[in-house]
Structure formats: C-alpha cells, structure tokens
Design a protein that fits this description.
Tachylectin-2, Chain A; 358 residues
C-alpha cells in the first residue's frame, strides 16, 4: 500500500521567490532526485509566469537568443486566433508558446522531508533549444558523476537534453540526445553488458501514440537500436499516453521502472513495469491498476489538476520513496514497501489488449 507523507505537499510555490519582480512562481514540481553524501537532493522544476498588462489577454517569459536574457512577451487582447483554453499553452496562428517558463533549482535535505531551497537557479535556459524553458529533470548516478536528462522546449519542438554534475553546484551541458519531439527520457544507471540504455517517448506521429521506447548507446552520446517497449492500454489508466518517470532500479527480479500514464482527458497516474535484468527491452510484468492516482486535494486541484507525475525515487532497503509533482503545482512524497510494489504487477502474458513488437 502507498503512504502519502503527512506533511504533503512538502514544497509549494510559496516556498520560494521568483527570479525577478515582474514574474511570479506558478508551480514547483516534477523534481529529479539524487542522494549525495547523505543528503537528499531534489532538482526542482520551477515555473514562472508573467502577468498581462492592460490591453493584453496573456503574457509569457521567453528566452531571447540574441541577448541571452529572459524577455517578456505580451499578446494583445484583440489578437486574431488567440486560444487560451489550456492553462499550459498560449496558442496563436503563428506559434504556440508556454504560459510559463521553467528553470531548475536545487533543494537539499538531511531527512528527505524538510528541504532548504537554494535561492538562485541551478540551471536556466541558455541555448536556442531551451527558449521556452527546461523541464522535468531525471538524475542518474554513474561512476563519474550525476547525469541529468531533461526536456528542452522551443519553437523547434521538444528535445531531450543532457547535463552532468558532480556536486549539484556547477553543471555542464552535454547537448541534445534525441531530436523533436521527444521527452520523458531516463538513463539506466550504468552499462548493461557494455551498453547504456535509455527509455524515451517519441511523439507527434500521424499513426502512432505517445508510448515508451528503449534505445541503446556505446557512449551516452550516439543512440540507436530503438525499440517500442510499452504502449497505451485502452480502458485503463494509461489509455492516452505513457512515458518513463523515475530512473529504473535493479532488484532480484529485474529492473523496476515507475512510469506515468494518462487518459485522453489528461488524468495522470503512476504505474510500474518490470524489465528483464540483462535484456531490459523485454517487459516481464506490468501493473494493471495505478500504483498512485490523483486522490488528495493537492493532487486533484492546482495549476493543472488530476496529476500525479514523478521524475525520481529513492530506494532505502525495501522502502521506496517517490517524490512527485502534484497537479503541476507542488512537490509531494509517497512511500511504499518493495513487496507491495511487486504485488501490483501482472505477468505480461496475462495482460488484456496486449500488443508487442519483437
């Protein structure tokens, strides 16, 4: 059974200040998670918005490539074709924009519950591929440091980018891993039989659906041998789209991947995949029911309600701590026993509507 921490949500928008006075924090959520020298580290996604002035229907921050600063863009109230129905998107006839602009900040804790947030951003937009912001970091510890895969949004689409750190005080960008549109990328911790593996989610196909794929690499730079891993399931909590969430961790039964699944109506839940230990492109079992679904008030109501979305977890023996974004608004924590997690799994041959590609 899952246990939501009694202090949830642990972090809210009121926990930190905006980067400049004409912006406001509209969400702190979807943190990457790591353990460093006994500390729990959260790499927070912090979303900031700009307030419209008289005569505008909307405004948003956008990174200006020519000046290297975050600029404010306003949209006149009489702009033809302006669509503001989705609180996450400003849609015009020429271009879609995000209503908020995200950067990363580091939060540190000795007990994994009470966090101190660094006052300055750890990473902000710095390339043309990041002009609409950087989002949803996932942290994998390797022998030579911590690798961070994150989504970069711009007018060129959404790409998966890679950065590296040793101390979560300085960060080195290593470039784009997967071209647009691709997101929900997470790296397995270390090579398997001499190869690195990544889960990813290509999108915007005319025929396919947003589903989980797996790729492999000899060096964390050149990726190939892409294969579909797990798809959507009609009639289930993951009938609309699926994507990787936490970094996979190895157990005596295989790799555990906590993933997210959404319905076409955008209700986001967490599920579980069990992957073969030596051949991680093989799915052995999958949860039929959600591991966690939006039930608490802070999960059902917020910037974008009905969302439970994780980018990372920590394992302490048989206890799994899942840090997650609630309603695209705040950071919360749930814990569960590894045995209970296994109890949610159903062998894939028993899965209804099963569809595989060898």
């Amino acid at each position: 059974m899952i246990n939501r921490h009694r202090d949830n949500p642990l972090l809210t928008r009121s926990s930190l200040s905006p980067t400049r006075p004409d912006f406001r924090v509209v969400g702190v959520f979807n943190p990457g998670v790591a353990r460093v020298a006994g500390d729990t580290i959260l790499l927070l996604r912090v979303a900031e918005a700009a307030t419209p002035v008289p005569g505008e229907s909307a405004a948003c921050p956008v990174y200006d490539e020519s000046t290297g600063i975050l600029a404010r863009m306003g949209f006149p109230a009489d702009l033809p074709g302006l669509d503001l129905r989705d609180p996450r998107i400003i849609s015009s006839r020429e271009q879609n924009y995000l209503t908020s602009h995200s950067h990363f900040r580091v939060a540190r804790s000795r007990d994994g519950v009470r966090f101190v947030i660094d006052p300055e951003p750890a990473m902000t937009a710095a390339t043309p591929y990041e002009s609409f912001g950087i989002e949803d970091p996932r942290i994998t510890e390797m022998d030579d440091g911590y690798y961070i895969v994150y989504s970069s949004a711009s007018r060129y689409g959404i790409v998966a980018s890679l950065a590296k750190t040793r101390d979560f005080r300085s960060f080195e960008r290593l470039g784009v891993l997967f071209p647009p549109d691709n997101k929900d990328v997470t790296l397995f911790p270390g090579p398997i039989d001499g190869r690195y593996f990544a889960l990813h989610r290509p999108s915007h196909s005319l025929y396919g659906r947003p589903e989980i794929w797996i790729a492999e690499s000899p060096d964390l730079r050149c990726w190939g041998h892409h294969r579909r891993l797990a798809g959507v399931r009609p009639g289930h909590f993951d009938s609309g789209r699926v994507g990787a969430s936490a970094v996979p961790f190895l157990t005596d039964r295989g790799w555990i991947e906590i993933y997210h699944g959404a319905t076409p109506e955008n209700r986001y839940c967490l599920g579980v995949l069990l992957l073969d230990a030596s051949e991680p492109w093989k799915v052995l079992a999958r949860s039929r029911e959600p591991l966690a679904a939006p039930e608490a008030p802070y999960e059902k109501e917020g910037f974008f309600g009905d969302v439970v979305f994780s980018c990372g977890c920590l394992r302490d023996g048989d206890t799994i701590r899942i840090y997650y974004g609630a309603a695209d608004d705040s950071v919360a924590l749930l814990t569960m026993d590894l045995g209970d997690l296994f109890d949610t799994l159903v062998p894939v041959e028993q899965e209804p509507n099963r569809s595989t590609i060898e």
